[in-house]
Design goal:
141 residues, mainly alpha, 7 helices
Length: 141
């Protein structure tokens, strides 16, 4: 249920990004490729995907950051205290745990430490995503 809510929440945003990226690709590239004898699959792999690389990198990084910061969806599953999202914390995220510790149990120092750890995780994962995407770009060029 939470995954469906997250997909519904972000699908329109990412669709608009990809649509804008597709509209930015010049038609002349496809025309030249078809004159040179490239088929649909070859045009897709040689023109469309490389032209969408910045959009793909952006959406992967922002989706990863958004995934690490999911808060509202698990809170909607079980909005009553305690904020554990189920009896056995089935769907509790790190952000919901931060909220529970800081504002539910009034352990503000522990909540701040969780926030700093979450920030470090987001920076680390974004750096890994960026490094992998630039490595793939360098390997293809």
């Amino acid at each position: 249920m939470i995954a469906a809510m997250v997909v519904w929440r972000w699908s329109g945003y990412t669709t608009l990004l990809y649509l804008a990226g597709l509209q930015a690709i010049p038609r002349e590239l496809y025309e030249a490729a078809s004159v040179d004898g490239a088929g649909g699959w070859r045009q897709f792999t040689s023109i469309t995907i490389p032209s969408l690389r910045p959009v793909i990198i952006f959406t992967v990084i922002t989706s990863t950051i958004g995934g690490l910061q999911i808060f509202t969806e698990p809170l909607l599953v079980n909005p009553t205290p305690p904020l554990t999202c189920g009896a056995a914390r089935q769907c509790q995220t790190l952000t919901l745990y931060l909220y529970e510790q800081a504002f539910g149990d009034f352990k503000f120092g522990y909540g701040a430490a969780i926030g700093v750890a979450l920030f470090a995780m987001v920076v680390l994962v974004a750096a890994i995503n960026f490094a992998l995407s630039t490595r793939l770009k360098g390997a293809r060029s």
